[in-house]
Write a structure and sequence with these properties.
- A hairpin with a 2-residue loop joins strand 14 and strand 15.
- The chain has a four-stranded parallel β-sheet, sandwiched between helices. It has a four-stranded antiparallel β-sheet with strand order 5-6-7-8. Strands 13-15-14 form a three-stranded antiparallel β-sheet.
- By secondary structure, the protein is of the alpha/beta class.
- The protein is built from 16 helices and 15 strands.
- The chain folds into three domains: 298 residues, 3-Layer(aba) Sandwich (Rossmann fold); 122 residues, Cysteine-tRNA ligase, C-terminal anti-codon recognition domain (Four Helix Bundle (Hemerythrin (Met), subunit A)); 53 residues, no CATH class.
- The protein is elongated, with a radius of gyration of 28 Å.
- The structure holds adenosine monophosphate and zinc ion (ZN).
């Protein structure tokens, strides 16, 4: 383990705090995962870049990682008001299944696969990460609801079992939610049976009988027996039940998008801490800011930019990742094509720079000097990432290191490799691809036409005489014949244009 301190901006306290793990040398993290009823948009993906950056930062500091990302495949109800407080809307997966003539399982399986394709394309590391599905943890959720019932935190209405938020004294503590404001802003008649506007469903009963349209209510694809009747879990309970199962009642870090602070995460805290006699759910809460796009980044409204949309525009996933990492996870980003194209150009320049260093670095450097210099330079980058994941400064520091003539080539390569692993940017891999493709396009001496050979000889003499004007004219003449001259210490080589 490194001895460098790690600082994280904790939404729970509103402060940047020194990270102290529950178990020395280990970190346990729960990240709210996707609701698999539709594709993820590029904004959603930022949440998993945050999870991945945290993981890579802890790995760089020598920590053992325990990581969970849940898959919401049941129970995420559509909000019935702008505050997202609804428990009366439809289950997103069931709604999509019915609309597309598929089963809930087909919908969930398909979009779960696309989720993995997207995060793998972005270089999110998943080895060892647990991805529990809500639908496969119904028993654990029922257990937790029973515990809450026994402790007096629940009540029953005609449509389900609800959590009584007035029984949990600290309700709304995450992000200091203005409960009075919520009450005043609440729409009338949302659910008259709820005792408090902030109460939420733990278990919903499957509807039966005749619906508002006069027809028999359609049977749900996903429903289970429970002590209170056939139904399905509310959304929040899955995170409380599954985090407890895989990480324990209290773990180190919980993350999600900022939209989760007011409702979902405060509900998770209320359930878990009430069920576990006040043990804190997580010590540190981190939230990623949104990627905005003129209001067009909404999964539920169906109009959004996906990772493959970017790829169709010629932007590689790693270039999108580079764009994201140029801002800290906690700053809001405005997506425009120009901005991401700009980042793609920046990334390509970085790769080209790395390729140059790989080609020209001096293999015979003293390994002891390299090791010492590497540690000093690397620690500067590590200190930046340890400062609440300051990825933009890590990237600009990397640029400074690459351009610094006082740092020896081998040292640069060692630091690039470590920074590459830290940020997941595939710099060495893509630089090698570039080097190989350049090599492949080099023209072998016996393929060079005689006219070009003559021009090369003339240019060699002109350069020996420092006649740069003639040298440039000759380069242009060679280019007109279809070849690019590359100058190196070993002389002139040619690339086909
Ligand atoms: P969902 O699949 O809708 O539950 O969302 C997955 C994750 O994306 C959650 O952590 C959300 O908080 C997050 N999220 C939703 N919209 C955006 C956005 N525009 N930018 C960044 N993160 C978002
Ligand atoms: Zn959650």
């Amino acid at each position: 383990m490194t001895s460098l301190p790690i600082y994280l901006q904790n939404t729970l306290t509103g402060k940047k705090e020194l990270f102290t793990p529950i178990t020395i040398g280990e970190v346990s993290m729960y990240h709210c995962g996707p609701t698999v009823y539709n594709y993820l948009h590029i904004g959603n993906l930022r949440a998993y870049i945050l999870a991945d950056t945290l993981r890579r930062m802890f790995e760089a500091n020598g920590y053992k990682i325990h990581q969970v990302i849940n898959i919401t495949d049941v129970g995420h109800l559509t909000a019935n008001n702008d505050e997202g407080l609804g428990d009366d809307g439809e289950d997103k997966i069931e709604k999509m299944a019915k609309a597309s003539g598929k089963t809930a399982l087909e919908i969930a399986d398909y979009y779960t696969k696309v989720f993995f394709d997207d995060i793998h394309a972005l270089g999110v590391q998943t080895a060892g990460t647990i991805f529990p599905k809500a639908s496969e943890h119904i028993a654990e959720q029922l257990e937790m609801i029973k515990t809450l019932e026994e402790k007096g935190f629940t009540y029953k209405t005609s449509d389900g079992i609800y959590f009584d938020t007035s029984k949990y004294a600290d309700y709304g503590k995450l992000g200091n939610i203005n409960l009075k404001g919520l009450v005043e802003g609440a729409r009338i008649g949302v659910n008259d049976e709820k005792k408090n506007i902030t109460d939420f469903a733990l278990w919903k009963f499957s509807a039966t009988g005749v619906g508002a349209n006069g027809k028999a209510v359609e049977k749900r694809f996903q429903e289970w027996e429970s002590p209170w009747g056939v139904g399905y879990p509310g959304w929040h309970i899955e995170c409380s039940a599954m985090s407890a199962k895989y990480l324990g009642n209290t773990f180190d870090i919980h993350t999600g998008g900022i939209d989760h602070i007011p409702v979902h995460h405060n509900n998770e805290i209320a359930q878990s801490e009430s069920a576990h006699n006040g043990s804190p759910l997580a010590h540190y809460w981190l939230h990623n800011a949104f990627v905005n796009s003129d209001g067009k980044m909404s999964k539920s409204k169906g109009e959004f930019t996906r990772l493959v949309t970017l790829m169709e525009k010629g932007i590689a996933p790693v270039e999108y990742r580079y764009w994201l990492l140029q801002a800290r996870y906690s700053s809001q980003l405005q997506y425009t094509e120009e901005a991401v194209y700009g980042a793609a150009t920046g990334y390509k320049n970085l790769v080209a720079h790395v390729a140059k260093i790989l080609i020209s670095s001096n293999d015979s450097a003293n390994t002891k000097d390299v090791a010492e210099a590497k540690d000093t330079v690397w620690n500067e980058i590590l200190a930046l990432i340890n400062d609440d994941l300051n990825t933009p400064l890590c990237i600009s520091k990397l640029w400074d290191i690459l351009k610094d003539d006082s740092i020896e080539g081998q040292t640069k390569i060692e630091v690039i490799k470590k920074t590459d692993t830290l940020l997941g940017l595939d710099l060495i891999k893509n630089a090698n691809v570039q080097i190989e493709s350049e090599k492949a396009s080099l023209v072998s001496p016996d393929e060079i036409p005689d006219t070009v050979k003559d021009l090369l000889e003339k240019r060699k003499s002109a350069r020996a005489e420092k006649d740069w004007k003639s040298s440039d004219t000759l380069r242009d003449e060679v280019r007109d014949l279809g070849f690019e001259i590359l100058d190196s210490e070993s002389g002139q080589t040619l690339k086909k244009i």
